[in-house]
Amino acid sequence: MARVKKVIFVCRDNTCLSNMAAAVFEDIRGEREIQVASRGLVVLFPEPINQKAVAILKSHQLTLLSQEATALEKTDFVPGTLVLTMTRSEKQEVKQRFPEMPNIFTLREFTGQEGDIEEPLGGSLADYGACYEHIDLLVKVAAEIIFKEEEDNDSIGL
């Protein structure tokens, strides 16, 4: 994979999971010149972010990148874009809509795991907290992979 210039976290409606993932990545990105975004596949109007997700992020001193859901569009892609979805079905949908995009993985797949990350719809704040902890760990592992590739490319002069 070429040097990552932008990471887009994608979930179905962009009101919870991808926002949590993007906030974690933005927090650990540091001074690296990597853009980060959160997008959804089914966004009919600019819906507000799930209040339980907002509360969990605030409890971890993290900030949302956007206050409302945003649809994934072709204009979101730049050379070096990495798309990380929460589920295999979302990955397939992104591949179908944007067949020219080469770097599309589920977040778990990118970190060497299998399975999906499902939103705890209707769950308690504790359920959302547990989901956040899982996403936090996976995003940090993904960031290590991305940052290591960046360092390796720098060391060989790319």
TrEMBL record:
<protein>
    <recommendedName>
        <fullName>Phosphotyrosine protein phosphatase I domain-containing protein</fullName>
    </recommendedName>
</protein>
<feature type="domain" description="Phosphotyrosine protein phosphatase I">
    <location>
        <begin position="5"/>
        <end position="144"/>
    </location>
</feature>
<dbReference type="InterPro" id="IPR050438">
    <property type="entry name" value="LMW_PTPase"/>
</dbReference>
<dbReference type="InterPro" id="IPR036196">
    <property type="entry name" value="Ptyr_pPase_sf"/>
</dbReference>
<dbReference type="InterPro" id="IPR023485">
    <property type="entry name" value="Ptyr_pPase"/>
</dbReference>
<dbReference type="GO" id="GO:0004725">
    <property type="term" value="F:protein tyrosine phosphatase activity"/>
</dbReference>
<dbReference type="Pfam" id="PF01451">
    <property type="entry name" value="LMWPc"/>
</dbReference>
